[in-house]
């Protein structure tokens, strides 16, 4: 049974990421499963710290992106919008190259809040970071949109 609200096959993540931190970090959604959202991010000059390993903040940005998009898919997007409320992360091991893949699964999906668990792994499948993100579900039409349809300011 799917955790998503309605048909999510037409959600265009690529256009929504345009002109955002998500695009700048190279984050992309790779799979929408019935019970999880999967995405990836490169470990490169955009995402590493001065020591040459994945920056913890980049891992958190990846985790919150996947959680927020998962929340977006799990609500009636004509009536509700998911916004980040709290996030934590435990960094397990360093990564210096390749890609990291994040999988967001629901820990709790309520009417007014969601909690998502995000596990980030390296190319070898080893756990790099585990995060938990709480989303507030607010009663307003979702404002996720491609750059040309966004109001800024």
From TrEMBL:
Record keywords: Hydrolase
SUPFAM superfamilies registered for this protein in UniProt: Thioesterase/thiol ester dehydrase-isomerase
Cellular component GO terms, alphabetical: cytosol
InterPro entries (UniProt xref): HotDog_dom_sf (IPR029069), PAAI_dom (IPR003736), Thioestr_dom (IPR006683)
Record flagged with keyword Transcription regulation: no
CDD domains found in the cross-reference section: PaaI_thioesterase
One GO MF term: 1,4-dihydroxy-2-naphthoyl-CoA thioesterase activity
Domain Thioesterase: from-to ranges: 52-129
Domain of life of the organism encoding this protein: Bacteria
Coiled-coil stretches noted in the UniProt entry, renumbered to this chain: none
Family: Belongs to the thioesterase PaaI family.
Protein name: Hotdog fold thioesterase
Species the sequence originates in: Microbacterium hominis
Lineage, broadest ranks: Bacteria, Bacillati, Actinomycetota, Actinomycetes, Micrococcales
């Amino acid at each position: 049974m799917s955790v998503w609200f309605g048909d999510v096959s037409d959600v265009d993540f690529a256009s929504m990421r345009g002109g955002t931190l998500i695009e700048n970090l190279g984050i992309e959604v790779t799979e929408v499963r019935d019970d999880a959202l999967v995405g990836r991010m490169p470990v490169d000059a955009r995402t590493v710290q001065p020591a040459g390993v994945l920056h913890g903040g980049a891992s958190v940005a990846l985790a919150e992106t996947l959680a927020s998009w998962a929340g977006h898919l799990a609500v009636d997007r004509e009536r509700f919008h998911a916004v980040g409320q709290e996030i934590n992360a435990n960094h397990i091991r360093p990564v210096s190259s390749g890609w990291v893949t994040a999988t967001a699964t629901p820990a709790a999906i309520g009417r007014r809040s969601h909690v998502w668990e995000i596990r980030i792994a390296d190319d070898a499948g080893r756990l790099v970071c585990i995060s938990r993100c709480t989303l507030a579900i607010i009663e307003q039409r979702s404002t996720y949109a491609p750059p040309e349809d966004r109001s800024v300011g």
